[in-house]
Design a protein that fits this description.
The chain is mainly alpha-helical and 83 residues long. The chain contains four helices and two strands; from the N terminus they run ααββαα. It has a two-stranded antiparallel ribbon with strand order 1-2.
């Protein structure tokens, strides 16, 4: 239970059922694909969904997206650095 509270998606006790493991892995992969598809429809390469009010807003959104993309793998990237 501790692992689930810590953020694990699944906890399997040993010995585990291989069919159950297969289903869980497939579901996790599908969830990831769905999340990626949903996110990529919101933000694609240098394209922000929605119509910006003006060019400054569009430039701001693009800078934010660039900064997030540059630091997507950085676990130490904070909201303060984004701001």
């Amino acid at each position: 239970m501790t692992s689930l509270n810590a953020g694990a998606d699944v906890f399997l006790s040993k010995p585990f059922n291989l069919k159950e493991l297969d289903i869980i892995v497939r579901n996790l992969l599908n969830s990831t694909k769905n999340f990626e598809a949903r996110f990529s429809s919101l933000v694609t390469e240098k394209t922000i969904s929605g119509v910006p009010v003006n060019n400054k807003e569009r430039e701001f959104k693009l800078r934010v997206v660039d900064l997030v993309e540059q630091n997507i793998d950085n676990p130490n990237f904070t909201i303060e650095e984004l701001a």
